[in-house]
Amino acid sequence: MGTGEPAATKEQDFDRLSELKAFDEMKAGVKGLVDAGITKVPRIFYSQTDGFDRAPADDFAIPLIDIDAVEKNPSLRTSVVDRVRDASGKWGFFQVVNHGIPGSVLEEMLEGVRRFYEQDAEVKKQWYTRDGLKTVVYNSNYNLYAAESVDWRDTTYICMAPTPPDPEDLPLECRDIIVEYSKQVTKLGRYLFELLSEALNLNPNHLKNIGCADGLGVLYHYYPPCPEPELTLGASAHTDIDFLTVLLQDHIGGLQVLYNNQWFDIPPVPGALVVNIGDLLQLVSNDNFKSGLHRVLASPAGPRLSVACFFTTGLIPSPKVYGPIKELLSDDNPPKYRETTVREYSLHYNTKKDHEASALLDFLV
Asked: Does the keyword 4Fe-4S apply (predicted)?
């Protein structure tokens, strides 16, 4: 899990840029390397240690919240909101069960991801691009040339809202399920924003009314088995760029959150979805909620499949300006961040080489 840069990387003949270009021009991602039979992790993937220890596996579990209980018994709403408030303020993460999305839909979504990545490589290449304005953006590491190390995963991004794409423009292997899953996650997300609004002692519709649920980006990831997982990471430490993320992960595991300078596992729970606070929600909540630093370990098992739904309008131009919500401010609690647009924040985030240091620090008042 990134035990340090081997001596080989210090060789004078290591031309990093050339190796990055060769990897990119292959248009087959990390899976292409594995399919080619590599037994050693290429040097561009080597990651440095961060100095934080891994907590004991049985030492922590992020809250598991049954949100269906609120509908069945409204008297439980207060306790559910309290748990959402506590988890969002301490960890920036919680898991939800009985969330209303059928298990069959979750399973088919993961199978759609598998079908896409495991189709014929030559067919899949048609989707490979670094043009973020494309309807479907498939590549490995959006920040390939800027990041200090390359992550051991491939990703596809599709913007599903505010302007849904023509389904005919989506990959056949996962077209129908992405449309259906996006509808279901959108409904869940809007409900989560109600609970989060109440956790801030605001009107239940407040976060929806200011546009937090307007955009939805679907990112589906494929983490191939890694021959030397101690040398690299599936996803380097980062916070999310959005208001809120709803994550579907398979049974492989590897997701971790940093808390009290230790990495804690977020083990898969059958039927559960992981919910985490994004940078923009930390900003508008004036630090009432925390955007948790997290990462994914590389593993010899797998492939690991996951689907992250980002509630954000991303790089889409919009005049909407976001700052700390005025109802949360007082003389004793002044705004911690300056106002920004989602696009401005997203562009700034994308220029950073290292996301272990939150991009929010550059927006402090």
From this structure: no
